[in-house]
Amino acid sequence: MLSLKDIKKDYVVGDSTVSALKGVSIDFRENEFVSILGPSGCGKTTLLNIIGGLDRYTSGDLNINGKSTRDFKDCDWDSYRNHSIGFVFQSYNLIPHQTVLSNVELALTLSGVSKSERRERAVKALEQVGLGDQLHKKPNQMSGGQMQRVAIARALVNEPDILLADEPTGALDTETSVQIMELLKSISKDKLIIMVTHNPELAMKYSSRIIKLLDGKVIDDSDPLDKNVVEPIKKPEKEPTKADKKAAKKERKKFKTSMSFLTALSLSRNNLMTKKARTLLTSFAGSIGIIGIALILSISNGVQLYIDQVQSDTLSSYPLQITKTTASIGEIMNNMAKNHEDSANHDKDKVYSQNAMGEMINTLMEETKVNNLEKFKKYLDDNSDLKDLTSDVQYTYATTLNVFTESDSGVMQVNPSTLLEDMGYMSSTQMEAMSMSGSMGGMMGMGTDVWSEMIDNEELIDKQYDVIAGRLPEKYNEVVLVVDKNNEINDYVLYSLGLLDPSSLNGIVRRAMAGEDISVDSEQHVYTYDELLDLKFKVVPTPDLYKKKDGVWEDMTGDESYMKKAVANGTEISVVGILRPDEDASSASISGAIGYRHDLMTYLIDEVDNSEIVKEQIANPDIDVFTGLKFKTDENAADTDSSSETVSDSTADTESKADKTADSSDTDKKAGLVAGDSSMEIPEGMTEEQYKALMEQSGASDTGELADMGMNAMGSMDMSAIQGGDMSSLTETQKKYIASLSDEQMELMKQMLKEQSDTNADQLANSGKYSTSNYDNNMKTLGYSVVEDPDSINIYPVDFASKEKIIDIIDDYNDSVGEEDKIEYTDYVGLMMSSITSIINAISYVLIAFVAISLVVSSIMIGIITYISVLERTKEIGILRSIGASKRDISRVFNAETVIVGFVAGALGIIISYLLTIPINMIIAHLTDVPIRASIPVSAAVILIAISVCLTLIAGLFPSRVAAKKDPVIALRTE
After folding, report:
1. To 10 degrees, the CA torsion angle through 500, 502, 503, 506?
2. Residue 90: Cβ within 10 Å count
3. pLDDT in the model for residue 439
4. What secondary structure letter does DSSP report for 593?
5. Which residues of 527-551 are buried (b: 16+ CB within 10 A; e: fewer)?
6. Residue from 511, 456, 778 nearest 632 by CA
7. Fewer C-beta within 10 Å: the chain N or C terminus?
8. Which pLDDT score, from 0 to 100, does residue 926 have?
9. What is the rounded CA–CA span in Å between residue 416 and residue 496?
10. Rounded CA gap, 585 and 615, in Å?
11. For residues 652 and 767, is the Cβ–Cβ distance under 8 A?
12. How far apart are CA 107 and CA 129, in angstroms?
């Protein structure tokens, strides 16, 4: 079973070599009680350590079951100690912070035995040594004899083949010693027990074999194996083959020991719990760096959240704007500055003119271009990354939002607002420019209109506004009213919306400048939420403001009666909510006092596109529907000069009169028929029978009276009303006359009116004169738009980083298209806040420097503390190695300790930091008005704890490596 062949062991001490064993050869039986006697220093313990695999022999060979151990590696020796050897030491060598049961279970843990089986076998071993009722006691709560019994139970629990006892009774009294020896003797019936002792009486009484050593040599063996051969030692008959070696390697791997990380954590946790105060202080010291970092991050996070909010709010007011006709403001400014510098290259002996106006006009012309927004919109719609980078992408159109309000005094235009013009503050041209500036998101101040489209991002609106009454709009015909942070609405809005009488301000600026005494309503008016939520408005599409007369369309905005009807038939808009800006919001996305949804504009676009006047203009792209004249083109412009116009006008007049004379006869006849005039000749194309039948239908008995009434009625009748089917504008006489007409007469009348309208339009179109407008201007006037081709695009980035990515997307588009399709955009925020990224980066670098310093200090400290722990647990290292723990297992134990310390330090740091943010926020709130709230993000807290664990683990790598390299024999001697 076990055989020592010429074992020698030398120790190098300084320059000399000491021989502890000098060629020891012993063969052991499978089950016997062997006592090794000899004076101190004779090599007894060294021999025992070599047999137990704790120490290595210098030369010779140790055979186990006929196998040589010369080629054993560390893992082989670990497995040998764990599965074949059980140690019983003089000083018991129990781990003090583990319970009795845990001490016994430890060897089984290294063997990979399941928890349930481990517990069962450990309890059985303790019961075998008479300690079944002491399972949960700690070693320091037991007597010496009990502790030695625990050591024996630990040695037996893994069912080893050999039990090694080093002075097992050396620290016990006589009575207890006898009990231990009796126990060992009973065990020797089934196992090989090798005991080292100084007590020859005990050896003689209990041992079946006594071996005496002196100066490293065997001087006596009472029962050597060669004298009484019971079991011959089997030797291999031939050299092992590769297959044998592979099988042996597989077998060794099967019995390889390994300590799980959970076991290592348990050992280290129990050890740390015995030193609670020191562990807590160590963790607190390690947490100081974490606290510093966490507080920096909490303040940084508060600042970043504020910056993010400012960015989000700011970018919701100052988007990336792309208009159909645009000019790069930055390029214009740069070019003008460069031109100014170039023009200054002259002597200063005279005064020179500076061509500022010319340079400005030339630069403006050079830098102004038309963007192909239809193609770019398709590109944006197809870009999947844009959604995550933007709060909204808003498409605006040239369609005018005509909003009116009705009252007893008539209708009032609410949007576009004419209040400033009515006051005499500015002309209509200035009003238009002011309105355009308002569309720039407030760059040049508030525009004249109080209606603005809401951003299509409810989450952002919820952050920027509080709904103080009602709700957010859900339909196209619902809007919200926006008040300021003090629940106030400025009087400009009140006058514009008709809540105050705007007529009281008419001409007030001109009268004030003329020196007249004027008075303005300065009373503070109060409105309930319900009153404001009852507000109703009417939206009228631009085409509904025109009416067709004599073949052309006439602007009817000056006709009060017509406007009342047009507004009455308009789409009703309801105020469904009142919004107030959030106190922490630094900016707002709704620039006006009334916010409407985007689908109101799409609804209006559909209404305009389907209107009769727009369809007519599209069907006749060369004729001006407002004048009936042809549009001037490059082809007909060359034929137009002053002389030709005169001839053309004269010819046109002559032709017109001739055509009118030629065409009027049939029309007059038809008119007479419609009026019931029987004296009229039969019109061309109608038989006498048809004429008589028609006259009979009109009432031949009263034909003269009806003819007089018809002619009088038709003389002042609005013929376009007949064409459109609107009879509301007719007088009672006209209505009576229309009612008297037969179906044939009505059709004849409509045919006559159409012919007359076409004749007028044809005469205008061929008069030789040309419209001063063009097709595009007319369509713009009518508010015609195509959804796929917006007038401008406003891109609202989520933050500045997203803005840069969006700019990259635009640049990628520009790189992929030709020069004519490249997009020019205006980045207002970029012009104002180009340095903010640099500032944020600088702050980040400073924080990183703080973090680095704190982490280095924490790492060094944890490394030192772990090394101290290694020194304190040296004996535990020896114990673990004696029961089969590998060097890697020892490293794992101390790595587990650093992980525990790191986790506690990180968690403690986060908890303290959370508590410290309370007074920090109070101080910030007291010292500043900026709504910065220091807070540690949950993700940052988790990451900091993880960093603390990782750093302590790294810091503990060196101490754990030192622990793994410790000699188990020396470690076991450490007290």
Report:
1. 140
2. 18
3. 40
4. S
5. beeeebbebebbbbbbbbbbbbbeb
6. 778
7. C
8. 84
9. 9
10. 46
11. yes
12. 17
The three-state DSSP-derived secondary structure of 531-581 is HHHCCEEEECCHHHHEEEECCEEEECCCCHHHHHHHHHCCEEEEEEEEEEE
Report how far residue 867's alpha carbon sits from residue 919's, in angstroms, rounded to the nearest whole number: 38
Instruction: Label residues 672-691 b or e (16+ Cβ within 10 Å = b).
Output: bbbbbbbebeebeeeeeeeb
Element (H, E) at 759: helix 743-765
Per-residue CA distances from 376 to 372, 696, 795, 819 (Å)? 6, 67, 12, 13
Decide if 713 contacts 749 (C-beta within 8 A): no
- Single-letter residue type at 911: I
Residues of the chain with pLDDT under 50: 227-237, 253-254, 433-446, 641-665, 667, 669, 673, 675-680, 684-685, 698-707, 709, 711, 716
Dist CA 947 CA 939 (whole Å): 12
Beta carbons of 829 and 431 less than 8 angstroms apart: no
Instruction: Give every strand in the sheet of 792-797, ordered side by side.
Output: 390-396, 792-797, 320-323, 826-827
DSSP code of 786?
A: B
Q: Sort 197 into a burial class: Cβ within 10 Å, 0-12 / 13-18 / 19+.
A: buried
The residue length of the chain stands at 975
Q: What's the pLDDT at 729?
A: 59
DSSP letter string, 878-895: HHHHHTT--HHHHHHHHH
Give the pLDDT of residue 363: 64
Tell which residue, 873, 857, 855, has the closest CA to residue 949: 855
Q: Indicate the SS3 state at residue 147.
A: helix
The residues, any chain, with a CB within 8 Å of residue 783's CB and separated by 6 or more, are 398, 399, 400, 541, 542, 543, 604, 608
Helix, strand or coil for residue 962?
Answer: helix
pLDDT of 527:
93
How does DSSP classify residue 677? -
Question: CB 825: neighbour CB atoms within 10 A?
Answer: 20
Give the CA distances from residue 480 to residues 36, 439, 831, in Å, rounded to whole numbers and listed in that order.
Answer: 101, 19, 32
Q: CB neighbours (10 Å) of residue 137? A: 15
State residue 658's pLDDT score: 41
Residue from 277, 341, 328, 263 nearest 95 by CA: 263
Find where tokens 């040599």 sit: 217
Helical ranges in 129-257 per DSSP H:
144-156, 174-187, 200-206, 242-254
Token representation of residue 2: 């076990």
Q: 693 is written with which tokens? A: 């039948």
Exposure of 600 in the CB half-sphere (CA atoms within 13 A): 29
481 forms beta bridges with 578, 594
Query: Strand, coil or helix: what is 728?
Result: coil
Contact 452, 580 (CB under 8 A): no
Closest CA to 810 of 379, 194, 316, 488: 379
Strand partners, 318: none
Identify the three-state secondary structure at position 222. Answer: coil
Find the angle CA(510)-CA(514)-CA(520) to the nearest 5 degrees. 60
Other Cβ atoms within 10 Å of 219 Cβ, number: 12
d(CA 596, CA 574): 10
Q: DSSP character for 629?
A: P
Report how far residue 954's alpha carbon sits from residue 944's, in angstroms, rounded to the nearest whole number: 15
Place of tokens 């399972």: 135
Identify residue 263 by its one-letter amino acid code.
T
The Cα-based distances of 923 to 303, 918, 926, 938 in angstroms read: 15, 9, 5, 23
Of 675, 785, 801, the closest CA to residue 741 belongs to 675
Rounded-to-10 torsion of CA 195, 200, 205, 207: 30
Q: Looking at residue 586, what is its pLDDT?
A: 64
How wide is the angle at C-alpha 356 spanned by C-alphas 350 and 359, nearest 5°?
125
Residue 643 CB burial class (10 angstroms; 0-12, 13-18, ≥19): exposed
The first and second tokens of residue 74, run together, are 């560390």
